[in-house]
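Protein folding task:
====================
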Amino acid sequence: GNVLWILLAGGLVTCLEYLLAGLVLCLTIIGIPFGVQCFKMAEMSLLPFGREAVPAPQRGPLSPLFNLLWFIFAGIWIAITHLLFAIGCAITIIGLPFAFQHLKLAKLGLLPFGKMIRERR
């Protein structure tokens, strides 16, 4: 699934976009926490099959505030984009697994602080 995701569903392009956004955000001290979340999104968007976002065992005290800022300025747009891609993939039966991965990315894109990526059990 991951190989087809990278080649056909835009996994590589999406990963590179998140990496670029993360690098730009890390140019400022204020943007570093948000850049780290972009790197998390890049990791998940490159190889989403067999991975899941789960609550981190240790969340920082600023996670709710950062999630609010992320949601307002980026999260809603990331989620809308992945929802649109999910709808496009869901048109065919073959695209349904890719649609589910985009839904997973949309959920992570809304509120990424306090989450970690792990292999699905």
